[in-house]
Amino acid sequence: MNTTGTAEVAVRHILSDKVTGGILTPKTRTITWTDAHYVVKRPPSGKHTVELTCTECSASLLAEVRDQSTTRTLATIMRVVGALCLVAFVTAFAYAIHEGGKTLPEGQSLPVLFSVSVVTIFVTFVAAPVFYIRGRNYNGVSILDAPKPRRGHRIVPVRVVKKVPPTGR
Ligand SMILES: [Zn+2]
Fold first, then answer.
1. Has the keyword Transmembrane been applied to this entry (predicted)?
2. Is residue 162 situated within a structural domain?
3. Number of domains composing the chain
4. Could you tell me the distance, in angstroms and rounded to a whole number, from the CA of residue 55 to the centre of ligand 1?
């Protein structure tokens, strides 16, 4: 099967989204859903809108599908941004340790760059994995706002499982 012109997605119908605990017990979030797999066609170029129907409640959902090359470019950009965040994280971390470890003379405060590096550490710590994971999973399909009730739905990419022998990867 030629998979270059298609994207595989799962339409998730969220049955329940519960957060329990938080005060005495650790907070746990339990999400249950049912999903239906769809194979959507990619446009030759640009993007187009496809309509997917939820098998659970027959709600009509609109999804935007991008062409193969744009999808690949965007996925690469996200991965690159993720990698750059990682570099910035390591750099800022090394700097903060270096600068923060110094014994400052009386009355002298840490340079502004120190505060900047601390902020960078926190931001990139969150951003790096987010971008990286999004870039890895990005398949060019995103859910669009539709006038019909579509709350409690999600469209998630499905990794194309390539048929490979279990030994080789
Ligand atoms: Zn539904």
1. yes
2. no
3. 1
4. 7
- Ligand 1 mean position to 147 CA, how many Å? 14
Q: Tell me how far apart the alpha carbons of residues 39 and 5 are, in angstroms, rounded to a whole number.
A: 10
Distance 162 CA to ligand 1 centre (A): 29
Which residues lie near ion ligand 1 (Cβ < 5 Å)? 13, 54, 56-57, 59
pLDDT score recorded for residue 27: 85
Pairwise CA distance, residues 43 & 46, whole Å: 7
Interatomic CA distance for residues 74 and 70, integer angstroms = 6
Q: How many Cα atoms occupy the beta-carbon half-sphere of 86 within 13 Å?
A: 12
Structural domain harbouring 35 = 7-21+30-157
Give the Å distance between the CA of 10 and the centre of ligand 1: 12
- Is 166 domain-assigned? no
Predicted confidence (pLDDT) per residue in 104-113, tens digit: 778 888 888 9
- The answer to whether residue 164 sits within a structural domain is no
